[in-house]
Structure formats: C-alpha cells, structure tokens
Design a protein that fits this description.
Blueprint: H1 8-11, H2 22-30, H3 36-40, E1 46-49, E2 64-71, E3 76-81, E4 84-92, E5 97-103, H4 106-109, E6 117-127, E7 130-134, E8 137-140, E9 151-154, H5 163-177, H6 186-192, H7 197-205, H8 213-241, H9 254-259, H10 266-280, E10 286-291, H11 297-310, E11 314-318, H12 322-336, E12 343-346, H13 352-364, E13 369-372, E14 386-391, H14 399-406, E15 413-418, H15 424-430, E16 435-439, E17 450-454, H16 459-471, E18 475-479, H17 494-505, E19 511-514, H18 520-531, E20 537-540, E21 553-558, H19 566-573, E22 584-588, H20 594-605, H21 609-620, H22 628-631, H23 645-661, H24 675-695
Parallel strand pairs: 5-7, 10-15, 10-16, 11-13, 11-14, 12-13, 14-15, 17-22, 18-20, 18-21, 19-20, 21-22
Antiparallel strand pairs: 1-9, 2-4, 2-6, 3-4, 4-5, 6-7, 6-8
Helix pairs in contact: 7-8, 8-23, 8-24, 10-11, 20-21, 23-24
Length: about 700
C-alpha cells in the first residue's frame, strides 16, 4: 500500500500548466482559481449535447443540433450598419448546403479557409430550400480528432477567458494530476457506492453522454468537500474540549425567577437548565442558542449571567448596534439591579473620562455585567475575572471577533445566540462544533402576526390602514429593497418612499428614514426616535432586520417582497408582534417567478421560523443561510446541503470515525502507516492550510 498521498500537481499553482502565464493566472484568480485543484473543482454549470450529428438535409426548422461540414467558399463580408459586422459562410456536408451567419466575429473568421472541416452547433432555420444557422458555436476539427461531436461542458467564466481556453487548461490539469491512488479506501467506496475520484473527475468534466453517471460523479466530489468540512468541525470541537472552563457550581436563581412578571416557558426552562449544567462541568461551555424572533432568548441569557456572577465571575454581552446595547442595558438593569448586580454599558462614542473610569472598574472586578458593541474588542478592555461571554445576533460577528472577546478571559463559558432559525435537519451537522439549544414557541401574551400578500391595486387601502394604525397610537415600518432609485433595478427605494409618504400621503404624520448608507450616529438617532414614539412611520432598508424591540410597532409593510429571501422576510416580520396588540405584515408583490411565489406563499401561511428555514433552504439552497460569517466554515461549492443531506451525514460519521482512529489529538502530522491514517493526516493538513484561515476571518 502506498504510504503517502501524492498531491504535488493538485497543490501546484495553475502557472505550472502550459499556456497559463501571469495574465491568464490573474483571470483565473478572479474566479477563485489559484491551484490545479481549484481548476479541477471548477465544475461545469451545464452541458450542451453536441454528440448527435444531423446531415444538413435532414435538419428540422427550429431544431438545435450539430452539423459537421466543410467550408465551400470564401467567407462573404458585409456591414449593414455601423456597429454590425456580418459574415456568411457557405458550408457543405455531402447531403446539402447551409449558410452560416456570424455577427461581429471578425477575429474568428480569420482562421476560416476553404476546405476546412468545422463543427457547428446551433439552431436551424429553414425557408424553402434555404437552410441557415445564425451565430452557432463553431470549432475547427483537428485531423486526429476521431470524435469531434461530443457532450461539451459549459463553465462559469470571467471577461477575457473563453470556454475553449478553460476546457484546454482543465484537460491539461487532468493529464498532470490524475492517475494516483484514491484518497478513500476501496472498501469504503464500494460499501457506499462512491465513484473513484479520477473517474468522477473525468465524468463530471467530459462525460461521454448525458446520463445519471454525471450526478454520481458529482456526489463523489461533493462527499470529499463535505468530509473536509466535517473534519474541520471535528478539529474545532476537539480543540474546544481541551479548554478547562471556570468552575461554577449551580447557583440558586429562585429569587430572580420569582421576581419576573411572567413564568418561564417550558422551552426557556429547558434551555436554562442545559446552560447551567454546562457551566457546572470542568469543560468550557460552547453553546449555540437558537430562538425564533421574540422567543425570549435574552431573559434566559440574563439568568445564565446571574448564575455566573453569583459564582464570582464577570459576564460580557456583545451586540451589533449601540441602540440594541442601550435597550439590553435598560432590560438588564430593570431585571438584575434589585439583586445588587452591577450592570454597565461600553460603547464607541463614550467620553474619554467616562470610558477610562469604566475600564478601571472592569480591571478591579466591577461591574458584574458589561453590555457593549465592537468597542468591547479593543486591547485596553481588560476584565478582572471573566467567566461568561455572550454574543447576541451571532451571525453579525465574525469568528475572529467572537474568539477575541472570549480571549479576554481564561477559557470562559461561551454562549452565542441567533434569531436566524437553522433548519432542524442541518443544525447538528453544520454546527457540529457547538452544543445546540433551541427555544421554540412565543412567550405568553404574544399573538401570531397576520401576514398578507397584496398587489399594487391595494395601495390606497394599505395606506388608509397605516393611517388608522397611527391614529390608534401604534407605529409602522415600511421596508424597501433599495436605498435610492436605480436605473438597473426596478424596485422601490427607501429615499423615494420616505419623500412620497411624508409630503404626499401623510403630511400630518412624522415619517422617518433609516438605511445602511447613513452615518452610524444618524441611524442610531432614527431608531431612538422611533423607539421613543416620535416617529409614526419608519421607512427603512434591511438595516432594521436585526434591531431593537419596539412593542408599539404593529404593522410591517415590505415593498417588492419578491426580492427578499424567505428567512430575511421572516426576520423583518419579527420586528413587529412584540407587544400585546395584534400585528400585521403586508407584503407588496410586484412580479417574481415561481420560486418567489412559493416563498411568499410560505411566509403568508406560517410563522414557524424553523419550518420556513427548511422551505427557504429547499427553494434557494444553502448559500445565504450558511455563509462564512454565520457558521464559521466556507460555503460549499459542489455539495448542496439540502439535497445532499444523506451524504453530509455519511461525511460526519466517517469524519468521526477517522478522528476516533487517531489517538494523536493534535494538528501535528505524524507518520502514517495505513490509508485511513494517511487520509486523516492529509485532511488535517488541508484544514490547517485552507479552512482554518477562512474560519478566522
């Protein structure tokens, strides 16, 4: 058995291949291709079946087909108008003649000579005896090419690079890199019906025919991608399992629970018990708390903070915006200060004297709970005894930022919270390095939000409903997909909408505006004014997707709702329905295809964020839902986390097995004696070189 995994060519720069110099390498880099491996894993978007050749005289009007013919006469050129260069080629294949019409292809026609054989692939047009093919794909047939008509891969490109050039480079790469032993043991491949890597690579790039073998090939390559991802999760989890957490015995929280104006839901009690159990153990807690919008995550987090504080440790809570930090501060003081728990706020625009005093207090052991934004990450923020780190809306923070905050203590317990539901079928697999708690259901007194899809014809009725809502002393959000008008996109802009509502529809009301291009201070002022009730109607972009709790806001109007993802629509809807009044979400639909219709219908019919997340994943795929920022791992390029769920489970199981077979719990490379040990070592190296830097961005 081979005792090393040969990857010299796979890991080589694309410049090692013939015809790829600095300029061509730069074009490939724009596509994320730096190495031969990257090139081989740049899979086709689709295929064109050029394998069926038709004699010219047997072609059918409107048919897309392949013709192999000889150039019968010199190309004829004309210029019907200034920017149009027209070439006509007369070609023959023995059965008849055809005219090939080419538009603005002067450079390509330079190489066309009488007697040359070409393959033409395009749509046939017949008018009586005249047969014509306009602007087909055409390639000169080499003398040694015994099978010029074939299935052709079509790739994603960048300007300056052609399909033929990319295909040639991929063929060259395959000649250089294929032919070695497979990474996976034969027994494993046979048991699970996985294709050999070399065969999969050949099949996915240059299939003989369009059949199920292409999908079988993709699945093998997808498995390798998922296995590498799962090894990364194993390493992250293993690294965390080495951290000895702050010893915290379970503290009595009965007095705090008794003081709450409500009883905890069963789900809240369960999640709190999971966290307190973690904090009793010698290992540092590393828990993800998923809870739908308005499910009561913050109360549970504050109770965990009380337990840590009563055990003698400080707690820090990091949130994405200052206005949200201010709101958490108000809630924390109301809930915790009666129990002599000191709560403070650290934000970026504090006066120097005030900030210096707070920093000194932190070093000396007070306050007990600090709430803040990114300002918490600066080097001069030092804690006396940090035991619990909480991040709210965790997808708004990179992994490096969360690690930097945790680094301010000695392996503190870590709780990350998100209101972005992750499909139940995937959370355990994708967040395998975290323990997961789920808060389902809404607190008592909350009414489900009523959601409606409306057309433009309903505009006047909706505006009358907005006025009625404000007259009842409630507030309204109006969300637009654009900040300003755009020539490229026909959609409602926030600036235009705010102008129209204030001056033409509601001149007697106060209409506010908030969007991502505003200065931070201006955004904070707008949200503060809305929270205080000084703004009746707040026109916004998705900047409010993660925002403050405004119980008095009961109507959410979303313009061009077809342009938003399902999870995003659910997040926006969650800005209302936070008080005791009945709330409404109105979705203006101005077009969209089948997927958009399914998406809007789903959110109209359900308020279950986890069910909607499953639907969103099915409709859109995992791209936006599992970006690097959200789960700390690169997004998949080959695998589909919805369609390949069984493959993902297999990768997880095999990664767990490989890790268990390697007693060396280290990232160091050790001499390998078996194929599985070699595979594990190799995957660790790949994780260290490729994934770990991405995770820490």
């Amino acid at each position: 058995m081979n005792c090393s995994i040969e990857t010299k060519w796979l890991d080589a720069s694309v410049t090692a291949l013939k015809g790829i110099a600095k300029k061509r390498a730069g074009l490939l880099r724009k596509m994320g291709i730096d190495t031969v491996r990257d090139l081989l894993l740049h899979l086709p978007l689709r295929y064109e079946d050029r394998s069926v050749v038709r004699p010219i005289m047997e072609t059918v009007e409107g048919e897309e087909c392949t013709i192999i013919a000889t150039i019968a006469s010199n190309p004829a050129h004309s210029r019907p108008r200034k920017n149009l260069s027209l070439w006509r080629l007369s070609v023959s294949d023995g059965s008849g003649h055809m005219i090939v019409v080419l538009f603005n292809q002067d450079f390509a026609v330079k190489n066309v000579q009488v007697g040359d054989r070409f393959l033409f692939f395009g749509t046939v047009k017949r008018q009586g005896v005249r047969i014509e093919m306009a602007n087909p794909v055409f390639d000169k047939i080499k003398e040694d090419d015994s099978k010029p008509a074939r299935v052709v891969p079509i790739y994603g490109l960048t300007a300056g690079l052609s399909q033929n050039q990319l295909r040639t480079h991929i063929q060259d790469a395959m000649k250089k890199a294929l032919g070695g032993p497979d990474l996976l043991p034969d027994a494993f491949l046979n048991t699970h019906g996985l294709m050999l890597w070399d065969n999969a690579m050949q099949m996915v790039h240059f299939p003989e025919q369009l059949d199920k073998s292409i999908e079988t090939a993709r699945k093998r390559l997808a498995f390798d991608e998922l296995l590498e991802l799962e090894i990364g999760i194993q390493v992250q989890r293993r690294d965390h399992m080495k951290k000895i957490g702050p010893p915290m015995g379970r503290q009595d929280l009965g007095d705090v629970l008794q003081s709450l104006p409500f009883s905890l839901m069963a789900a809240q009690s369960r999640v709190l018990d999971e966290m307190l159990s973690d904090m009793e153990k010698p290992l540092a807690m590393n828990r993800l708390l998923q809870g739908d919008v308005g499910s009561g995550k913050t109360v549970v987090a504050f109770l965990a903070a009380v337990s840590a504080i009563r055990a003698g440790y400080q707690t820090v809570l990091m949130v994405p915006t200052e206005i949200l930090a201010e709101q958490h501060l108000t809630s924390a003081k109301r809930m915790l200060e009666p129990f002599n728990i000191r709560v403070s706020l650290l934000k970026g625009n504090m006066k120097k004297r005030e900030r210096d005093r707070l920093l000194q207090q932190l070093v000396e052991g007070g306050p007990d709970l600090v709430i803040g934004t990114h300002a918490l990450l600066t080097e001069d923020v030092v804690f006396h005894k940090l035991g619990l780190v909480i991040t709210d809306e965790q997808h708004r923070f990179g992994v490096r930022q969360r690690a930097a905050l945790a680094g301010k203590g000695t392996s503190p317990h870590v709780l990350v919270m998100t209101a972005t539901p992750i499909p139940r079928t995937l959370s355990l697999l994708v967040y395998g390095d975290l323990d997961i708690s789920v808060l389902d259901g809404l607190p008592p007194g909350r009414k489900p939000i009523r959601t409606y899809i409306v057309k433009e014809a309903m505009r006047s009725r909706i505006e009358a409903f907005i006025r009625k809502t404000v007259q009842e002393r409630q507030q309204v959000y109006v969300v637009c997909p654009l900040v300003a008008e755009s020539e490229e996109m026909q959609a409602q802009s926030a600036e235009e909408m705010a102008e129209r509502l204030q001056h033409h529809v509601f001149p007697d009301l106060c209409v506010g505006l908030i969007h991502g291009k505003m200065k931070t201070a201006d955004k904070e002022d707008a949200m503060a004014a809305f929270l205080a009730g000084r703004i009746d109607v707040l026109v916004a972009t998705t900047v409010i997707e993660v925002g403050v709790n405004v119980p008095n806001a009961t109507v959410m109007v979303i313009e061009n709702a077809e342009r938003f993802g399902l999870s995003q629509l659910h997040q926006l809807r969650g800005r209302v329905g936070r008080g005791g009044e009945q709330s409404h979400c109105i979705l203006f639909q101005n077009g969209g295809g089948k997927v958009a219709n399914e998406r809007l219908k789903a959110i109209e019919e359900s308020t279950d964020g986890f069910l909607l997340a499953e639907t969103d994943l099915k409709l859109r795929g995992p791209g936006e839902m599992f970006g690097t920022q959200q789960h700390g791992l690169p997004e998949c390029h080959i695998a589909n986390l919805y369609e390949d769920l069984e493959l993902l489970q297999l990768a997880k199981d095999y990664a767990t097995y490989l890790a268990s077979q390697n007693a060396q719990n280290t990232m160091e490379v050790i001499p390998a004696s078996t194929q599985e040990e070699m595979l594990y070592d190799y995957l660790l190296q790949r994780f260290s070189a490729r994934l770990r830097p991405l995770i820490m961005n």
